[in-house]
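User: DUF3224 domain-containing protein, Amycolatopsis rhabdoformis:
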Amino acid sequence: MTTTATATFELDKWEPQTQDETDGTEFARVALAKTFTGAVEGTSSVEMLTASNATSRAYVGFERLSVSVDGRKGSFVLRHSADEEGLSLVILVGSGSGELTGISGTAAITQDEAGHHTFTLTYELPAA
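Assistant: Predicted structure for DUF3224 domain-containing protein:
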């Protein structure tokens, strides 16, 4: 059965480090940390690689969430991929642990005009 859990999150850390800039396109590595509140409760760490220039930007990354989802505690990894066509967040198969072992699904992030982030996790878990 597919379930949806919604939370807000605060960005606790954003540490970009330029790795290379050639012919107008910059590569950077970014370390992030987040704190989630709501149906997803806990923290995460993110490792991201970005490429950006005057006309476009894109990133790929992995995020390890140490959270409870609807009261079930554990961890899992999200794979991020984004560019001008949109953002894709997919749970890495086999990455769930604890009460989140076997989790699968996707996520979405939205940001309102005030800069507040909402995280929506659409997931499936094996029967307990």
